[in-house]
């Protein structure tokens, strides 16, 4: 397998294949890698925090349920008598 990440300066690129791949069918895929991450403005970040707080407040109204200490007893579950 060959993987190369390049920044081409022209629209042609020469790829050297190893001898083991000569005579075999190979797939070549090229796609653009986006390196920029979207920057959140201060206003958008505050709006996002507000939305998250709103969601948390809705779900915090419900009682918390835990299954800590629960143990399934197969014999008890299959006891039909």
Provide the succession of SSEs: HH
In terms of per-residue confidence, which ranges show pLDDT below 50 for 5 or more consecutive residues?
A: none
Largest sheet: none
**Number of helical runs?**
2
**Average pLDDT, all residues:** 84
User: What share of the residues does DSSP label as strand, in percent?
Assistant: under 5%
Helix content: 25-40%
Radius of gyration equals 29 Å
Give the class from helix and strand content and strand pairing. mainly alpha
Quaternary structure = single chain
Count the beta strands.
0
- How far is the first residue's CA from the last residue's CA? 62 Å
Indicate the overall shape.
flat
Task: Tell me what you see in this structure.
- By secondary structure, the protein is an all-alpha fold.
- Helix content is 28%, strand content 0%.
- It contains 2 helices and no strands.
- It has helices at residues 42-60, 74-77.
- The longest helix has 19 residues, at 42-60.
- The termini are far apart.
Any chance you could write out the topology, listing elements then pairs?
Layout lengths: L41 H19 L13 H4 L4
Summarize the structure.
The protein is mostly helical and 81 residues long. Helix content is 28%, strand content 0%.
